Amino acid sequence: MTEGHAAPGPGRAPSLEQQHASVLGGGRSGTISGWMIKILLLGAADAVAVAGLIMAIDHEAWGYVAVLGLTLVALNVVYLPRRFVPMKYLLPGLFFLTVFGIYPVLYTAYASTTNYGTGHVLSKSQAIDQIQGQSVQPVEGATRYDITPMKDASGLFAGFALFDPEGEQLFLGTDTELTELDLDDVQLTTLVTTGRTFVESAGDLTGVRAGDVGTLPGYPDPETYQMPGETEDAAITITGGQAVESRSTLVHDADANTITDVADSENPIVYHEREGTFVADDGTALRPGFTSQVGFDNYRTVFTSSEFRASFFRVLAWNFAFAVASVVVTFALGLLLAVVFNDARMRGRKIYRSLVIIPYALPGFMTALVWRGMFNETYGINKWLPSSLEVSWQSATIPAMITLILVNMWLGYPYMFLVSTGALQSVPTDLKEAAFVDGATGWKAFRKITFPLLLVSVSPLLVASFAFNFNNFTLIWLLTGGRPRDTGETAGKTDILLSWVYRVALDASPQRQGLAAALSVVIFLIVAVLSAIGFKYTKAYEDVK
Amino acid sequence: MRTRAKVWSVLSVIAVLGAAGTAGATTVPPGTEPAGTEPAGTEAPAATEAAGTAPAPTAPERGDADLVIWADDTRTPVMREIAEPFAEELGIVVAVQEVPSGDIRQLLTVTGPQGEGPDVIVTAHDGIGEAVADGVVEPLDLSGVADGFQDVAVEAFTYDGQTYGVPYAVENIALVRNTDLVPEAPATFEEMMQIAADFKAEHADDPTYLGLAVQVAPEGDTYHYHPFLTAFGGYIFGQNDDGTFNPDDLGVDSEGGLAAATWLQEQAAAGVLSADVTYDVMKEAFGAGKAPFAVTGPWAIGDQNNGFETTGVPYAISPIPAREGGEPPAVFVGVQGFMVSSFSEQKDLATSFVLDYLSQESSQLALFEAGGRPPALTSAYEQVASDPDIAGFGEAAAAGIPLPAIPEMSAVWDSTNLAQLNTMRGGEGPAEFTAAAEQIRSQIGG
């Protein structure tokens, strides 16, 4: 009894490593509660994974089966035994890196080899279903029947009651026969909302309401249900809430991979698959098309079409300049303020520091729109300027570029201020004191001591900021929309690659997601290479230490 | 599992491309979704602004409903009310889910093929060309009910000779005049412009005074420019005898189109029209009595945020008058309606709901009362046309044409918006519109 209450003495306290090990898989008998928690958490994670696995198998989504299976195995292998301690820390990170980092990149790369886009969003089988479904046309002069699903006395689906509202006739249609029912023995209701006739009962058959067909045994898929009609090779099918005798003229031949129009039986028209569409010899295409693999066609378009070649380097140059200038101006202003507010002689530093981060706290979506209003040439800041100083903020190229960089400076300096403040406080003061003792001025001490030390910690952030601004679609799109732009051009004077791609491939018609994906891959490679170079370069600063 | 994941991955492509979700999945270029097809009121200006900014939209879950309807925020409550008796009578569960109007069709295109989407959508007609090309909407046989609807409404939902939706509201812009400044509607285009020019000349120093308040900024606005284009005999696409548009006949650089361009250039230079006028500037100028005329739609009148009704400016609505000896200017008519998803597993219910039930007068009137958009069903329209505002916009619609829904139209917006903007910013009107026409032709041809 007393043993249980005995507090562990200092000598018996588990070491830090042991504590970690116990939580993350060590499972010492002394920390039974930790071990229990581990089992519970792992069990919960396993349960979720297994549930997902079952669903994935059910949907025959083999890619997900593989991923979930691997995750399940990895979870248990890593966390159950006491070994693999470093992996216990790494695994969650690796998992999220894969799901949110690597997978989208790979999927984009995959999408770039397809023609996914307007007119090519369906799978091939869906497209064939649609094409055939839309070719079903009512036979001329055919009666339109109001339909009611019927069940027999034993509660089984017995067929559809077809009521002809004009001829006042009632039939029972099954997939094999059509029988006329005696109207004397029938109870009909007209539905208030739709005006259709509902057959409450006919003889020993009972009508089933739409809400109850889900539980009706033997109820077929009404879309594919066919009842025999009067005309040859036509059938009564259900379409649009009514049944009508109709026929389809398109026949799909899976082996030959063709669709044949047999409307004119002597001259059937054959449609062959071509780049995600069924096309006849005379060029007539069947709608809709479907997604298909096009190999490197999208990349060929990117690199060879005049649409992209003509403006690519101009846009790339501005894109680069914009990203570099954004980093430079935000960092310069942020650092300046950080240094100023870091000086102990400055009064009210806390208030200033709080105020300075306001632009960072406001949503950029809103502020960018406010800034756009500010730079409206008639109703913006020009209103308060003497007319000789009015600037064509939106219609001239250089002012529009300056606008972008100014607004980005306003949006971005608080971040640079925050990181610089943090970094400044980590610069050891004794180094600076030593410099002053050696006779350095304030500026010289900053330039030779503080700044290089600062760069050690912030330069990776500068590289990241460059990568972010290189793809700062939001600001460009909201503030200038790439304008000014010459009529007839797709690339505006202030477009960056991403905004240009978005306009050409996604904000246009037809949408070309496949092409957009190919361009994304190209942009991804550019940013990846530039960032890799940047990070390599920043290592040089670490030598300062 | 697979379906949700696929949706997610498609969105992720868009997100990766569009700067992590900022690009959104908006298909329609900001200028092409005319304010008129947006929910009335405050959302009209936001629609153009938010088009590129909405975070990547996500589709709601279907849940266990038999019939799922997607409507935007302004129509969700009334759709719930309307759907209730239908659901009750058939013993089914109907779910009305709120999806932003700009995202509805795009999300249907993404989720439908995965079996996750809605059965019925409420949308503007101008996206049907693409929806049909994508194979995501079901043809609807309107033959039984078409006679009851205004012709323009049925025409709008017709694509390639086939109808795809049940219309419920017709919307368009018209000339709104300040009845203190201009008591009588001008008889001719020239008279209208003279009044506008004189008014502007009186207030030449103050940019907040406008001769003719028409929104253009920030990127040009072909939707609002179209009546002026047609006033001079210009047009975008020629119409065949049956009312369908002929993409081979582009009239942006026709004689009339270039005459309109020259006129536009002159008016901008004279300050009667300005490239810097946004929806808000237009609304504020007219609302404050600082413009004798505005060319806008019902949304600017009922706008909760300083609409004309709120500011109390005395106004009257009439069609934009024709030039002497010219044809009446044609405004674009946008039609709202219901479409059935090709991927619905309840096509019978969905079609019956849309075709049999929503086409009835009572449903159309209920929708009118909730949204204030003039009904597309003639008998319902006649009941509400005693309202002078509705009659005024209705009169303007009579001379209008449906907003072209052919996919070729998408090639037009960006080019003509830009030509209009650049002309008003000091470019040579005819040269700008000729360049735009060339670009459109090369895009359509290629």
Portion of residues in helices of chain B? Answer: 40-55%
The rounded distance between the terminal residues' Cα atoms of chain B is 39 Å
Uncertain parts of chain B: 1-55
The CATH superfamily of the largest domain in chain B turns out to be Periplasmic binding protein-like II
CATH topology tier name of the largest domain in chain A: MetI-like fold
**Helical fraction of chain A:** 40-55%
Low-pLDDT stretches of chain A: 1-28
CATH architecture of the largest domain in chain B: 3-Layer(aba) Sandwich
The largest β sheet of chain B comes out as:
6 strands, mixed
Mean pLDDT of chain A: 86
Strand content of chain A: 5-15%
Number of domains of chain A: 3
The whole-angstrom Rg of chain B is: 22 Å
- The CATH architecture term of the largest domain in chain A is Orthogonal Bundle
Quote the beta fraction of chain B. Answer: 5-15%
Number of strands of chain B: 14
N/C terminus separation of chain A: 58 Å
Largest interface: A-B, 85 and 84 residues
What integer is the average pLDDT of chain B?
85
Radius of gyration of chain A: 36 Å
